[in-house]
Amino acid sequence: MAALLALLTPVATIALVGAPTTSWAAPYVPQPSNRQVLNFDTNWLFAGDVPAGNGQAVGLSEAAFVPVTLPYFRTHPHKGFPRGDFEVPASWYRRHFALPSGYSGRRVLMEFQGVAKAAQVYVNGTLAGQHNGAYTSFTVDVTPYVTVGGADNVVAVKVDSMTRNDLPPEGGAVDYFVWGGIVRDVNMIVADPLHTDWTFVTTPSVSASSATVNARTSVRNDSGASKSVTVVTSVVDTGGNVVATGTGTQTIAANSAFEFNYNTSAIADPHRWDVDDPYLYTVYTQVRDGSTWVDEHRTRIGVRTVAFNATDGKFYLNGTAVKLRGLDRHESYPFIGRAAPNRLQAKDADILKYELGTNLVRTSHYPQDPEFLDRADEIGLLVFEEIPGWQHIGDTAWQDVAVENVREMVTRDRNHPSIIMWGVRINESGDNHNFYTRTNALAHQLDPSRPTGGVRNFTGSEKLEDVYTFNDFSGGSIAPTVLPWLVTESVGHTDPDRSNDPEQVLTHTMLTHLNVQNQAASRTNVAGALGWAAFDYNTTFDTESCIDSTCYHGVSDIFRIAKPAASAFTSQRDPAKYGAFVQIAHDWAQGSSTTVYVAGNCQQVELFANGVSKGRISPNAYTSLPHPFFQFDNVTWAAGSLRADCWIGGAIAATDTQYTPGAPVKLSLAADDASLKADGGDMTRVVVKALDANNQVVPTSNAAVTFSVTGPGAVVGSSPLVLEGGVGAVYVKTALGQTGTIAATAASPGLASATASVTAAAFTDPIVPVSGAYTFGFPVDVNDRVTGTGQNQFNYAGTGWQNGGDANAFSKDNSWSGTANDTATLAFTGTRVVLYGILDTTHGQAAVSVDGGTEQTVSFTGTRRANTALWSSATLAQGGHTLRVRVVGNGPVALDRATVLAAAPTVVSAPVAASPDVIPQSRYSVRYVDSQDFNGDGQTLSGPAISAFDGSTKTFWHTRWSTGIDPLPHELQLDLGASYPVAGFTYLPRQDSANGRIGQYEFYVSADGSNWGSAAATGTLANSTAAQTVSFTARSGRYVRLRVLSSSDGQYASIADLKIRTSGVSTTTVDDRATGTGQNQFNYTGTWQSCTNCGADLYSGTNSWSNTANSQFTVAFTGTQIRLYGVRDPRHGIAMVSIDGGAETAVDFYSSARQGNLLVWTSPVLTAGSHTLRVRVTATASPSATDTFVVADRVDITG
């Protein structure tokens, strides 16, 4: 998540002296902070427009809104759609939220990472802020407009997505979609009135032995009084140790800001950030108000130097020349435009680095998502970031916005070590001396540590920037005319290709990219070259290379599936660092060329044609490249196969086989990710391929593939999807608060189907609290051609119904009738239904109702527009309902789809038992660890010390192994957050391996974290996967220390889960049949039944049950926690559980097999005193349940 952005208040600046230059090795100690960063992406409502134009009104009817998770905008086909679908003068996003009383006196800010193209932000009906520009972030201080104490607040964002000729990049022709909507994350930042506004950390002097760190920090005092302020900057390594620190003090006047500027102590022997070793430090900025700590802000930095040399033309990273090799990237995705979740943003960076083998990406032609840049920092992908624009320079006001874009871009992103240069010129524009003098000077003022560049497409252009960045579509023939010189685009625009193009076209594009890269490699005074582009992208243009709303300029298609041209880049990876690679660039089909090119980072390649060797050769084509190609001539085709063996170091390191393509016989389906977050917006790409009998893609297949899904998710994309080059992709998206397995199936006539599954895991980010009445579930779209008499099926009655295609309709089809009293009904389970149809000037009206109620007239008349929301029901009781659409008869009625909304709060289906004597892990923090590894599997935090107490048994702390091995003994110190009588610990070893299982140990308890005294416990833990509890006589303290003296493998230590136990806690059990209105009694209201001697699996042999909506029971108790035990069964449903009238949590009592006396829900740790548990029956079934019973067995109360 991006840090707080600068507010537009003048800031005083002073240079302060930093701390003495000494070496630091002590663990970083966090101090109290009033700052919270909350996820603000979930539980929004969206509407394309509000007819009255008053979408900000507090009491607005939200019947026409649908629930969404951000980022979100309208979906669309991946090609062949009109521009007008996304140019909307007003889209509205609304979010209800409640702020606790504890936020009183704090500043409340909303950070929008990207809204296209202009936004107005209203809070409780009042305009709180606005922003112009589709690509830069902005923050709105909403403190004056919100109410704390649990009241309902509503934020409404009006988004203008029309063509905006007053805003870059528009004003002239633009060959890409700017898209629209809230297209990136939204965060809420709650902070003390005295808080860090921004930090800017640089390393002015770096060597192998020392690095100087300069820290600039803007601190705001939004209180009404002058403050005596101390700022402490700590640079912390990945082991949690402070390696440099600096301090500044200043009195800051009321309602003003002050910029601290000082050098910290030097970092001794700095671990420098590099493309192959992207080491990151964390900078913590702590703010003290007098003697009270009030704020902690953090950012990541890399210690490195970057320079373009004007004499030799080379680019230097940490003093070493690096030839830049890269691609340009559009932030544009099929089906969803720019509204891509963080997972997809980070995946693009991974594709560029690991699949395409680049070391540089240009963010063409605008600043891109912070998550993409964060991932670039993490993996060592260099970035050239530029301001929005495409060829056109507007008037003075337009230029002022562009200058502001420079300010916003640099201020937001200048702490990213991956960024090596700022682009301060409008892409491919003409010279404009005054304008570009302003942009260049501002970038240098805001960030003196980086060079600037400005992309042009003609020689002789005035060079105001530090680097001459040039789009060269000559095939690499233009020699530098000024230094430094970087080729920023090449090939794709003039040599496009599609995945289903003939071999000759695909090979030509590949060879042209190779020629450009080879020319750049051969010229020592060229810093490098980028190809246009990484991926095909949607466009507003209709040209020879851009058709069906798609520019085919990428080395990968719009789904990020590589074309042959990608091998020109992938083959340049270092095999020692990124693995061996070999790929045959040939179809091996009748009519194929007799010249066979093989891409690879091999020392030699041996080619076999139908088992006969054509020789083992060294690279012989494009030989200036680090890894030239292999060209085999006079290879005559005969049906069969080609095989290329990649030889490195005298052994075969990789092999590729290309068969003569056969007929498609089956589909394959593969998801990028195994697990997603159940936040309603997370999604992963699912790639579908048509394969022949050799499991090889059939490049001529254009099979139409339909997708279906089971489980708590949905497919986002076209269904059917017509494959190009035998490949395609859709996305699988989660449902808000619904966990489980999502299984997507791809089918096509005549081909064997395929299924891919992903897990929707619990969403645990801290979110902005939702006002109680405004939690909405996941929308389910029902296409008009999904017919039948069951749930979520359209049932048509009457003689006039017809159906047919419409390219702009949902799933490209619709159903219509003009015959009076023809009907369409839809049975569904949910809380609301929205009807979508097709407007047309020839269309008439329908009468719409729910459950036989009053009909409402809905007009289908208007300028033709498909997939348009025409009517919504009111909010309904959760349960079964029937929508009915009746044709009036004054013109055709065309149905497109219905969206069913089901109330779906977070469902607890498998709670972890919280032992009454366990100190909550949420209170732990790492105080010190001697060794930890950060090279996990990419899906889980496997290595960092925090994984020892993150609540997951799949993640684990592991001492360093990927970049060296630290010897025993190992040590982990935890801060428990407060003092407890510590009486033991429970240790769960790593579950997937025996590595690091702890043997001999010592365990200590301390009041101050310094004086440890003698060990509270010593011993040897068993070498097994079982959890092991160690108990000892209680010692009072806040800090604990585990020393590992030996382990199962003699060098590592690991912990999957560590719980610290306390003493002096009592537990009271109350049976479900202990009834009444007093303390520790079940008080039932509504319709309940019970039985005794009902089974040995029940507590005391009793239980109580109901399936009547809103029947409930309460238990009044005195204590600090309560645990609910019930019965799970195939017939059981969902209950809503709450404490003291607070927010309800949905608890699932379903199980495929009966389980009695089972823990189903655990309250949070409560303030000691009187409380009331409330359990309410919803009469809602789980997806697989056959009934809706809720069954109580007992409660355990912790005193």
Describe the structure.
The chain is mainly beta. It folds into eight domains: 11-34 and 193-301, Immunoglobulin-like (Sandwich), CATH 2.60.40.10; 37-191, Galactose-binding domain-like (Jelly Rolls); 315-561, TIM Barrel, CATH 3.20.20; 577-659, Immunoglobulin-like; 666-767, Immunoglobulin-like; 779-901, Jelly Rolls; 921-1064, Sandwich (Jelly Rolls); 1068-1198, Jelly Rolls (Sandwich), CATH 2.60.120.260. The strands form 18 sheets. The chain has an eight-stranded parallel β-barrel with strand order 25-26-27-28-29-30-31-32, surrounded by four helices. α3 packs parallel to α4. The longest helix has 20 residues, at 503-522. It is globular, with a radius of gyration of 32 Å.
In short:
The chain has 1199 residues and is mainly beta. It has seven helices and 83 strands.
List keywords for this structure.
1199 residues; mainly beta; Immunoglobulin-like; Jelly Rolls; TIM Barrel; 8 domains; eight-stranded parallel beta barrel; six-stranded antiparallel beta sheet; 7% helix; globular
At CATH level 2, the architecture of the largest domain is Alpha-Beta Barrel
Radius of gyration: 32 Å
Q: Supply the helix-strand structural class.
A: mainly beta
The chain-level mean pLDDT equals: 89
Helix-residue proportion: under 10%
CATH superfamily of the largest domain: Glycosidases
Report the portion of residues in β strands.
Answer: 35-45%
Q: Look at the structure and give the CATH class of the largest domain.
A: Alpha Beta
What's the overall geometry? globular
CATH overall fold name of the largest domain: TIM Barrel
Q: How are the strands of the largest sheet arranged?
A: 25-26-27-28-29-30-31-32
Number of helices: 7
Number of strands: 83
Low-pLDDT regions: 1-24, 773-778, 903-914, 935-941
Describe the biggest sheet?
Answer: 8 strands, parallel, barrel
Work out the count of structural domains: 8
